[in-house]
Specification:
Layout (H helix, E strand, L loop, with lengths): L16 E3 L2 E3 L3 E9 L7 E9 L2 E10 L6 H13 L6 E7 L4 H6 L24 H14 L4 E6 L5 E3 L2 E5 L4 H14 L3 E5 L12 H6 L5 E5 L8 H17 L14 E10 L4 E5 L6 E2 L4 E6 L5 E6 L4 E7 L3 E2 L4 E8 L3
Parallel strand pairs: 5-6, 5-7, 7-11, 9-10, 10-12
Antiparallel strand pairs: 1-2, 3-4, 4-6, 8-17, 9-11, 12-19, 13-15, 13-18, 14-17, 15-16, 17-19
């Protein structure tokens, strides 16, 4: 059960909020860019909106577009910018609309077009590194370290047929774990992965959400959307989930819309391709499979069969690659085991 978390106490009016070179007065909204330094054209600008409430409260960061081909969360945050009014808000909302502009502009899945790195594997980043590492460094410094809590908003990339689910990442702090559990329930997606696999080294946190948790900031990762689509249902699910978490933190009036019947997943595995070629999925996303069941087939680029790919254990298919290219070392599907009651 998710219980509402009191907003931070403070003076009758909120204070100005600083982000980068900006100063956003209480009761105002400001949109601009976080600059990612570079030389010889190797630079970027991350579009961000800060909504600084008229009343004091928590600082909640909503981050979309870590993977640039994941559109519903990106579109949801642009709508939230116009939905949330500073006069109604307690605390501060930081909306990172497109965290990975190079990938967004080039429509790349997984990897940045400049350095071939997955931004969500290089946190906390390096200010002197390649583009992905510099992006991670600025996001860590300006967003993670400035917020009180964070939502890392994802969906199925351009090649992933994915059902909605979220990750409840377990850390070493029991109180923090309870807060992140409440956030996952408040976001409202029924399937919730209990994730105890994240590393515990703040200097090698890899994932954005894990970077926040290892710095004492509650965070969850959500997934809603698939195959690069911009369908209204997934956009709305992201909007409503964010608003519900804001109510959980008493940033907006009302109660969070807590998921009434969560489906807990206590083990998951991403099955990778061991060959280049073509992938033919045989079971749709969201279907239940039993251990050893054939989920799809690999063939080479001449159409000759390589092998059947089987489920490693029984569970629900959280996502299945829905496009033909298969690349060695890249995902084919993810299966999650349902937790027994």
């Amino acid at each position: 059960m998710a219980t509402a978390i009191p907003a931070e106490t403070g003076p009758a009016g909120n204070e100005a909020f600083r982000l980068g070179a900006w100063r956003v007065p209480a009761g105002e909204t400001l949109s601009g860019h976080l600059e990612i330094p570079g030389e010889g054209g190797d630079a970027a600008a991350v579009p961000v909106t800060v909504i600084n409430g008229a009343k004091p409260g928590k600082v909640l960061a909503l981050v979309a577009g870590i993977h640039g081909y994941e559109y519903p969360p990106i579109l949801a945050l642009y709508r939230l910018k116009d939905i949330v009014r500073p006069a109604d808000l307690s605390g501060t909302l930081v909306l990172v609309h497109i965290a990975n502009p190079p990938s967004f502009k080039r429509r790349t899945i997984y990897y940045g077009p400049d350095d071939g790195l997955n931004l969500n594997r290089v946190f906390p980043g390096d200010p002197q590194g390649t583009m992905s590492r510099r992006l991670a460094s600025v996001l860590t410094r300006e967003v993670v370290e400035r917020c009180d809590a964070l939502l890392d908003l994802h969906c199925g990339d351009g090649n992933e047929a994915l059902i909605p689910y979220s990750y409840w990442m377990i850390g070493r702090d029991p109180a923090l774990n309870e807060t992140t559990k409440s956030m996952a329930l408040a976001f409202g997606i029924p399937h919730i992965v209990i994730d105890e696999t994240r590393g515990q080294d703040p200097a090698d946190s890899k994932y954005l959400g894990n970077t926040a948790i290892l710095r004492g900031k509650p965070a969850i990762t959500t997934e809603s959307g698939f195959l690069g689509r911009t369908d209204e249902e997934d956009i709305e699910r992201n909007i409503e989930g964010c608003l519900s978490v804001m109510r959980l933190f008493r940033m907006l009036p009302g109660e969070p819309d807590v998921c009434p019947a969560p489906v807990w997943i206590d083990k998951y595995e991403v099955v990778m391709s061991d060959a280049d070629g073509l992938w033919q999925p045989l079971v749709p996303m969201g279907h239940y499979v039993v251990g050893g069941q054939v989920v799809g087939r690999l063939s080479d680029d001449l159409g000759r069969p390589i092998r059947d790919v089987r489920a490693p254990f029984s569970g629900v298919l959280l996502y299945v690659i829905g496009t033909p290219p298969a690349n060695r070392g890249e995902p084919l599907f993810e299966v999650g085991r349902l937790k027994e009651k």
